[in-house]
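Box 4.2: Ligand-aware structure prediction
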Amino acid sequence: MKSEELDVIFKEVRCKKKFNEPMRNYASFRIGGNADLLIFPEDTDDLRNVLYMCRDKKIPLFILGFGTNLLIKDGGIRGVVVSLNEGFREIRIADDEMITAGAGAGLQTLVSFALKNELSGIEFSVGIPGSIGGALIMNAGTRDGEMKDIVKSVKIMTDDGEIKVLKREDIGFSYRHSDFPTGSVVLEADLILRKGNGRDIKKKMELLISDRKSKQPLSSYSAGSVFKNPSNDFAGRLIESTGLKGFSVGDAVVSEMHTNFIVNRGNATACDVLKLIEIVKERVFTKEGISLEEEIKIVGEDTHSMQ
Ligand SMILES: Cc1cc2nc3c(=O)[nH]c(=O)nc-3n(C[C@H](O)[C@H](O)[C@H](O)COP(=O)(O)OP(=O)(O)OC[C@H]3O[C@@H](n4cnc5c(N)ncnc54)[C@H](O)[C@@H]3O)c2cc1C
């Protein structure tokens, strides 16, 4: 949609707005075309107004976290992209062993907050980039734990602007997956931790960070693991067995350090990454008979569908 049309439609919504905004600046892959409108609601009233406008005018809506699990296509995102990074960032102690964390806060900010308050249980997530909202949607984690292990309840706004609190058992969490109602926005979560010893928590976190540093290409542009691990196997092992380590399409490369990561050497396009993904899937299927499933979310439009 044209910026002028969107400007008129959203003029009542007073929060920060950016028209025709390059999404590569909001994605850890550093890939992606422009969003028609990127909007930063500061509170639930702003957010509800945006949802109403989008519903009434039939404008597509996408909720952005920190963009660390996204491949945004080269044609960008039509309609409205909402970021909760301006408001929705509060993290507070809600009860002795419970933290309430806003969806727009960083997961690593929460990790530091838990450490400072000597609360244990979230150490598994140290080093996972992204926001609380994204971590809940993805049920982010490692083999040491995942978000569902610490969630008590999650507050959401449904696509018709209603605020609801969902209990953990109603969210349908599974491996890198959740079942929030379609079109809903995660607002905040109550997380249950337990009293711990600050020194022990810190030590555990340092070990996990140094393990991560030794295994993942953390200084390169990427979106983390591209594929989910199939049951009883590792996507990285399967890819390595095909000999594709270091294989590239344009500037998109199968990481030498961690074969389940694709890294952007600098000028990769989404098209390069998508071609590489298809090659990897085809080779793994031919050699191992296993269909890999993407963990990253692929969003937006191809360049030929740009208006
Ligand atoms: C170097 C690196 C290492 C990583 N390591 C791990 C790891 O060990 N384990 C792991 O699980 N992941 C890992 N990841 C992937 C990624 O960090 C996680 O999936 C993270 O939780 C995504 O959060 P985000 O805020 O960036 O979400 P985004 O990538 O912005 O979005 C992910 C999805 O969540 C939706 N979403 C985000 N916020 C909201 C909201 N408030 N309401 C509704 N929908 C929302 C988006 O629409 C999208 O569908 C890694 C990524 C990188 C780059």
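In the box above, the bound molecule is flavin-adenine dinucleotide. The chain has three domains: 3-83, 91-215, 235-305.
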